[in-house]
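Archive maintenance. Older records in this collection stored only the sequence; we are now back-filling the structure field for every entry so that each record is complete. The fields below show one back-filled record exactly as it appears after the update. Entries are processed alphabetically, and Glutathione S-transferase N-terminal domain-containing protein is next in the queue.

ARCHIVE ENTRY
Title: Glutathione S-transferase N-terminal domain-containing protein
Organism field: Tianweitania sediminis
Length field: 233
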Amino acid sequence: MTDLSSFPVSRRWPAQHPDRIQLYSFATPNGVKASIALEELGLPYEAHKVDITKNETWGDDFLALNPNGKIPAIIDPEGPGGKPLALFESGAILLYLSDKSGGGLMPADPALRYETLQWTFFQVGHVGPMFGQFGYFYKFAGKAIEDKRPLERYRDEAKRILKVIDGRLANRQWIMGADYTIADIAIFPWVRGLTVFYGAGDELGFGELKNVAGWVERAEARPASQTGLKIPA
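Back-filled structure field:
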């Protein structure tokens, strides 16, 4: 049996199936990227709920896995060379899982692969940070700030980014055209969260983004999404 005792996180969240990929996550737009990809690729895994509402990412056990204190993170007991691999950052996890599966959720053509990575990093560098800041000022503690310039800044940037995505999806089923990839998995949970979590559809003019709305519906309807969006429970 695989021994994960060298990872402090396994003491706080013991593995029932240590031979499987261990996922430490919470059902946020970043967290569900990993669970959706795992479901899509059919890789065996075990999910552990790390409750960010209780600051569980800031305990020493989790920080030993991710010193940045953010979900998701994974441990693959059968990493490169057959050795356990710990990994954090959702974009890195998506790329790793694709490679581990033999190239799933990624075009085989080298040029298209880099184009997929381009859009995945677009999410990492723009979609997540800007949407997250907008959500803070629109729904959470930031809404009490009397000066509305921060809200307006992030609202306008979120709207701009949505238009970029909507333009990309013109006459396309998925971000990369006919093929569903890690780029879709990286981006759609964040776009979905603008309406289902932040309740900001009207504020952002979501109804005008016909390409985006249809794409989110298609992504949500996939069986792997239906499962992955609820993991960890």
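Update note: The chain has a mean pLDDT of 97. The CA atoms of residues 118 and 142 lie 31 Å apart.
Entry marked complete.
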